[in-house]
Amino acid sequence: MATPRRSAAPLGFDISTQSAIESAERLLGQGEPLLAYNAVQLGLESEPRDLRLRQLQGLTLARSGDTERANRLLAQLVAEGIGDSETLGMLARTHKDLAFVAAQAADRDHHLKAALQLYHQAYEAAVKNSQGAAAYYTGINAAAMAVMRDDLPTARRMASEVRDICHRLLRETNAAADYWLTATLGEAALILGEHQEARASYARASDLARGRFGDLGSTRRQAQLLAGQLPGDHSWISRVLSIPPVALFTGHRVDATEQVRSAAHEQLARLRPMALYASAACAADILYLEAMKEFGGETHIVLPYRAEELRRLHFERLSGDWSERFDRALAAANSITITSDHRARGSTASLDYANLVMSGIARLRAQVLGTDLVGLAPDDKVVVQAADSPAAKDRVPEGFTHEIRAMLFADAVGYSKLNEDQIPIFVTHFLGSVAELNQRMAHPPEHVETTGDGLYMVFGSTRDAGHYAMQLNSLVTGTDWARLGLPAGMNIRIALHCGPVYCGRNPLTGARLYTGPHTSRTARIEPITPPGQVYASSAFAAVACALGVEDLSMTYIGRMALAKGYGELSLYHLRAVSGGCSGATAA
Fold first, then answer.
1. Beta strand residue intervals within 414-460, DSSP E
2. Ranges assigned E (strand) in 46-101
3. Which one of 62, 135, 396, 518 has the fewest beta carbons within 10 angstroms of its own beta carbon?
4. Closest by alpha carbon to 86, among 39, 43, 134, 130?
5. ∠ Cα 471 472 473 (to 5°)
6. Which alpha helices (DSSP H) does 151-240 contain, by range?
7. 275-278 β-sheet, strand order
8. Which helix (H) or strand (E) holds 567?
9. Is residue 410 within 8 Å of 495, Cβ to Cβ?
10. Phi first, then psi: what are they for 454, rounded to 5°?
11. CATH entry, 11-240, from 2.40.280.10, 2.60.120.230, 1.25.40.10, 1.10.3720.10
């Protein structure tokens, strides 16, 4: 593939409804809402009306930051007459999230009020139907919404009721090891102002989480939101509900040494990260991946090209059992991402690109969980010897360079319906307005091609490409084309991708040329992009995040089938909304 993909095999997905539900719930618990959404999509392909899958679709979208779409999907369930406490609670959660990103005070209060009403409605239904777990979940959230609306008496009355429900469940059932019940007791005590009991319950919940860092992250975010509204010192929350860091191995290609192995064990033992992201492209990577598995953590591997070629170039020439250890590391990985289908001869761009994508994916994961991202490498004092590789003897073909670029493909929607006399108008006004935009932009495209209604542009960075895409989209969607003599429905589809391309000269025209499999990948995204929208590949999102682009919002959409049978790809919806580069706002 020409852009990152996640290997399905380690995740255990199949298309059965129950398997999709179990996979999604497990991945949500691990703090992987994007992968959970993929599992839900697979299940919905065979059972599009399954209630639990539709609920989980809304929940995974909410956890990955696409709150507005989650709100619409869950509101549709309620409109269909589904009024169970689970659905009402999920819909209430989206209103809560929308309240905290609302720019206007009136919008914030509207969503808080809606959340409180829905949670309370769900709570009453659960109590009436003797659904203890649903009652304490919806009740504690209703209490939290009352806190946010500065109604502390109501909040404390409901928190007290919820605590009684939790204690009754503890007496009647063997629920002492239930994470959510224990976390709810902590939240109830926090609202009631009983800090010692809150700390004790939250500490027990943290012990019960057992790797469910997504759940723990949700609990911590809720506690910190409440702390901002409640009296007292709550600085202890981040310590009691701490989440281990995400680790990124950034070492160079080296021969295996005992010093590297020792460094891996020492660093991992000290940091105890929840997950390690590495390329598995050298012996040092393998040592760190093996050590991480020994500590019981997750491993996520990002390969610069296919495993067979990587094994041949980097491991088969090493003495020892490195090829077998490479295969075992892949088999044990929680996910595998392949950034390019093939190695470009003589170029290091594919390796640099894979490292950028890996860094971005790791950063996105850390942002979703609200934890730190730490870089790991063998100690500088360790003397290592780089292994020779036949790749070092290769050269990029003469007349070309191989460089990482951001690419944009766009299509003028409605062009095919233009009559003969409208074509000059299109060229003058539609393409002319794009030309004017290029003159105004501080960082215009470094290369432009047009074919009829199609635009292909190349940029030096994801930031430049992202901002240009938003400006282009605003230009087209904000113009009265009918006034200029074109159909009123004229619109545009815009797709973005980033990857290594060959840069050279077109022998037919003498113009600059930017081409390769990653160019084709960008072209396949554009036809499935809705008019008036900007879609970006997961690689674009990851590279942008790795490079610190924080003024574009990228919201995860899910895996979608590409045009012309070109496979599937994980895509993001790009918007010019300040708030970060994460799938949680917004890899």
1. 447-451, 454-459
2. none
3. 396
4. 134
5. 90
6. 152-172, 179-192, 195-209, 213-227, 237-240
7. 335-338, 298-303, 275-278, 246-249, 373-376
8. none
9. yes
10. -100, 145
11. 1.25.40.10
